[in-house]
């Protein structure tokens, strides 16, 4: 399956792009570098955008009368209102985004794990965590697209879930540019087994929306289907759901396979269940059967390649955070 779309990703500019951190540095990310040939990045540094220099005093989240404020870590200069105004203005004008990757733990961009301090100066954090001001605004504004930080993408399962979502979102966004019911039917058909991995319940609901028994307008159908997509991708699928679909797909070929081939495939499934091999191993066996037996229906299934195969990597930090 060829690369058929290019997602647009909002990205903290300090990650693999410009030296704009408070200390004049940048942030390395293997995942962001490897993703670059397949997406279009829209980069932003909110701190520079509100007038802070490079380098600059580090800022932190502090409590002021029980409320979270963004302020200089030494001089205590409060930039909360500037950041909120910038976030509202910038995100209101930002369109056609399929996902976001923001700087982890940043008091501006962090989507979680942002430390809260009782005041500026040399004081210990309160031991509580929050979300950065800009990060919080992104999550609120774009509540149907995936928002991650570069640290979480080092986790194999989180990364593949993110990649699957951004490429699916872009394909659906491209469909909406010149939509027809026929295109929507094809989209849903080609995603059947990938959606089955995520949620059989939501797959059924999405199928009912596409069937459109009530003869609603195309616009209404698309809106309802998009909402179903968002619900479908809320959680990373369980291993048991993946195995169920792999077994289902093997059924397409069971009458043509030798006992030894079936046994080998089932052994691979057990190794996958035990976490000893990646999902790609049994999937590759199925793909070889799709080619061998020339199954045109399965050739179009995004289950086999929801995102470019060049991005498949089993490297994993082991931390999901």
Describe the protein's architecture and organization.
With 321 residues, the protein is α/β, with parallel strands linked by helices. Helix content is 44%, strand content 11%. The strands form two sheets. A four-stranded parallel beta sheet has the order 2-1-5-8. The longest helix is centred in the middle third of the chain and has 22 residues, at 156-177. The radius of gyration is 23 Å and the shape is elongated.
| Share in helix | 40-55%
Proportion of strand residues: 5-15%
Per DSSP E runs of 2 or more residues, the count of β-strands stands at 8
Give the H and E element order.
EHEHEEHEEEHEHHHHHHHHH
Structural descriptors:
about 325 residues; alpha/beta; 13 helices; 8 strands; about 45% helix
Write the layout of secondary structure elements.
Layout: E1 8-12, H1 30-35, E2 40-44, H2 46-49, E3 59-64, E4 67-72, H3 80-92, E5 99-102, E6 114-117, E7 129-130, H4 133-141, E8 147-149, H5 156-177, H6 181-190, H7 192-198, H8 200-211, H9 218-232, H10 239-250, H11 259-273, H12 280-292, H13 296-299
Parallel strand pairs: 1-2, 1-5, 3-6, 5-8
Antiparallel strand pairs: 3-4, 6-7
Helix pairs in contact: 3-4, 6-8, 7-8, 7-10, 8-9
Quick structural overview:
It is built from 13 helices and eight strands. With 321 residues, it is of the alpha/beta class. The chain has a four-stranded parallel sheet with strand order 2-1-5-8.
């Amino acid at each position: 399956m060829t690369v058929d779309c290019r997602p647009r990703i909002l990205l903290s500019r300090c990650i693999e792009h410009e030296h704009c951190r408070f200390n004049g540095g940048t942030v390395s990310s293997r995942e962001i570098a490897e993703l670059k040939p397949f997406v279009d990045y829209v980069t932003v540094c909110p701190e520079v955008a509100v007038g802070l220099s490079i380098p600059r005093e580090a800022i932190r989240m502090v409590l002021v009368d029980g409320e979270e404020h963004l302020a200089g870590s030494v001089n205590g200069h409060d930039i909360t209102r500037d950041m909120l105004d910038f976030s509202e203005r910038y995100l209101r004008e930002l369109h056609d985004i399929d996902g976001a990757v923001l700087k982890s733990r940043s008091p501006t961009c962090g989507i979680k794990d942002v430390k809260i301090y009782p005041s500026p100066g040399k004081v210990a954090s309160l031991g509580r965590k929050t979300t950065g001001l800009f990060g919080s605004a992104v999550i609120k504004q774009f509540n149907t697209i995936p928002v991650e930080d570069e640290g979480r993408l080092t986790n194999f399962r989180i990364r593949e879930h993110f990649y699957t979502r951004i490429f699916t979102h872009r394909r659906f966004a491209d469909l909406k540019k010149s939509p027809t019911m026929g295109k929507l039917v094809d989209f849903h058909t080609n995603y059947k087994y990938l959606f089955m991995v995520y949620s059989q319940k939501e797959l059924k609901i999405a199928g009912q929306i596409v069937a459109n028994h009530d003869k609603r307008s195309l616009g209404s159908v698309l809106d309802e289907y998009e909402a179903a997509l968002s619900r479908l991708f809320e959680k990373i699928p369980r291993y048991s759901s993946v195995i169920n679909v792999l077994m289902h797909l093997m059924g397409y070929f069971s009458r043509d396979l030798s006992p030894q081939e079936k046994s080998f495939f089932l052994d691979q499934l057990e190794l996958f269940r035990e976490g000893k091999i990646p999902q790609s191993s049994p999937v590759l066996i199925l793909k070889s059967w799709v080619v061998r037996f020339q199954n045109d229906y399965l050739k179009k299934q995004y289950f086999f390649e929801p995102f470019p195969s060049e991005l498949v990597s089993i490297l994993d930090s082991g931390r999901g955070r």
